[in-house]
Amino acid sequence: MPPQSIELLQGTLDLLILKTLALEPMHGWGIAQRIQQVSRELLQVGQGSLYPALHRLEAKNWIRSAWAVSENNRRAKFYSLTRLGRKQLESELENWKRISGAIALVLGKA
To answer: Is the pTM of this model over 0.85?
Structure first.
């Protein structure tokens, strides 16, 4: 039986996208697939969530996009992290550590 997917907490999608793009530029479908694979199929990002998040991150200048040819010879918009995006990723990771630590304390798992 495949694992049940988990609904993302508000704000975590931005962090996951930034972390994924820290590795290499990717197109939208590739970002969603990478998140799904790395999470062992627990996190699935739908297009209805992914593309608005990508546009939001691009508007904040945390990522940039450029058209290129994908691995299957199709034109696709590839996204990459900006310098400002790298700084934001560091900040978001630090915040995530603090929040998850505090939640663990409340749940008695620290």
So the answer is: yes
